[in-house]
Design goal:
By secondary structure, this protein is of the alpha/beta class. Helices cover about 40% and strands about 15% of the residues. It folds into two domains: about 170 residues, Alpha-Beta Complex (Aspartate Aminotransferase, domain 1), CATH 3.90.1150.10; about 240 residues, 3-Layer(aba) Sandwich (Aspartate Aminotransferase, domain 2). Strand 5, helix 5 and strand 6 form a beta-alpha-beta unit.
Length: about 425
């Protein structure tokens, strides 16, 4: 198995050099090169089509990052774009609502078990921020117990600069799948706990099962009830991907509040906090939530059309069927490779974790992702991959072949001794 030479990235790297003079770091957060493989990954994208992206140097990749999750169908979806352009004819930014808001909120209430009411916002962080504020307003308590990644706002960024300890200390993390740890945290903070926010499935990345541990979500629900804490499911990733109604619909456990986004509009910037009316009505007077752009309607039109397509074409059935086959093939490839790696995730969101069996696990990981991107497969070392509807069977077969080759190179260069 031979290693592949690097891709031509001259224009991308030149643009990155320019960008560093124009904004801090050139790119924000997880888009910076160190979150991929510096010097290897494309930084500036020119266009996308179906399940592919093309960078400014003309390199064409099968994209399994899918914009970190929003692309559930594919790039350049004409039906959605047409719906947006039709809405544009009536205007879209009044900071006052248009009828389509009611239509979309009604649609969410029909699909999502806990969604008696909805608040439409723009980003996942907006939605989780709204949910946490409602939980605190409802209980008149402060502490939030968290499990998963829930955005970049102060309440959930515990160890970064710019966040006062007085705020970060009000958020307490607990490990996924461990009901005893959650109960201990609830007992410790029982006088102050406002809510529990948990990513119901797909966290942590190295979880080697295709569903939540048996009884786990039911146990979280029971503990929230016992300690009178508001239960929030962060379904920003799992909504409209695990099931139309999210993980709560697939696994039969209903939270008090939930957040949805990403796949809801196939890339248009919209998310929602939904929940039972008893809790949501706190936002009528007691809790302040407002933004000039929350009522913008183009994203709502995109969401309505995206949901139409997901239902009409039975998209999730297709993604789960092909994702299951992909995950099974991935597990076999990893096992046959001899590389110490764990295949994890669920069929729509597969992943590989390089096991810490020795001091070379990070080098194996870097080698693997270097060889994958040089073979035009776009995946991320620290984030789930995704299967989109427009990934063809040929795309997925090629991706598996690339993964097999990349693992072989990593295993040869960094054998376990």
């Amino acid at each position: 198995m031979t290693e592949k030479p690097g891709l031509k990235l001259d224009r991308s790297l030149a643009l990155f050099e320019e960008a560093q003079k124009l904004s801090p770091g050139g790119l924000m957060g997880i888009r910076r090169p160190y979150n991929f493989v510096p010097g290897e990954y494309p930084i500036f994208i020119e266009r996308g089509y179906q399940g592919h992206i093309v960078d400014v140097d003309g390199n064409d990749y099968i994209d399994m990052l899918c914009a970190y999750g929003p692309i559930i169908l594919g790039y350049d979806e004409q039906e959605i774009n047409q719906a947006v352009m039709e809405q544009m004819k009536s205007g879209f930014c009044f900071s006052l609502v248009q009828p389509i808001q009611n239509a979309l909120q009604k649609r969410l209430s029909e699909l999502i078990p806990c969604a008696e009411m909805a608040i439409l916002v723009k980003t996942g962080s907006d939605a989780t921020g709204v949910a946490v504020r409602i939980a605190r307003g409802y209980t008149d308590k402060k502490v939030i117990l968290r499990c998963g990644y829930h955005g970049w706002h102060d309440w959930c960024v515990e160890t970064h600069g710019g966040v006062p300890e007085e705020i970060s200390s009000l958020t307490v993390e607990f490990p996924y799948g461990d009901l005893k740890a959650l109960e201990a945290a609830l007992e410790k903070h029982k006088e102050d706990v406002a809510g529990i926010i948990v990513t119901p499935v797909g966290h942590p990345l190295n979880q080697p099962v295709a569903a939540p541990p048996p009884g786990y979500l039911e146990g979280v629900r029971a503990l929230a009830d016992r300690y009178k804490a508001v239960l929030i499911f962060d379904e920003i990733r799992s909504g409209f991907r695990v099931a139309m109604g999210g993980a709560q619909a697939r696994y039969g456990v209903t939270p008090d509040l939930a957040t949805f986004g990403k796949a809801m509009a196939n890339g248009y910037a919209i998310s929602a906090c939904v929940g039972k009316a008893e809790f949501m009505k706190v936002a009528e007077k007691k809790v302040f939530i407002s933004s000039t752009f929350f009522p913008n309607s183009l994203e709502m039109a995109a969401a309505m059309k995206c949901i139409d397509i997901l239902e009409r074409d039975k998209v999730l059935d297709d993604i789960w069927r092909r994702g299951q086959a992909f995950l099974e093939s991935l597990a076999k490839i990893a096992a046959d490779s001899g590389v110490p790696a764990t295949v994890s995730g669920i069929p729509p969101m597969p992943f590989i974790t390089f096991n810490k069996v020795d001091g070379h696990y990070a080098e194996r990981r870097t080698c693997f992702y270097t060889e994958a991107i040089r073979r035009n497969l776009f995946i991320q070392p620290y984030h789930h991959w995704y299967i989109a509807h427009r990934h063809t069977d040929k795309d997925l077969a090629y991706a598996l072949a690339v993964i097999e080759e990349a693992l072989a190179v990593a295993g040869r260069r960094f054998p376990v001794k």
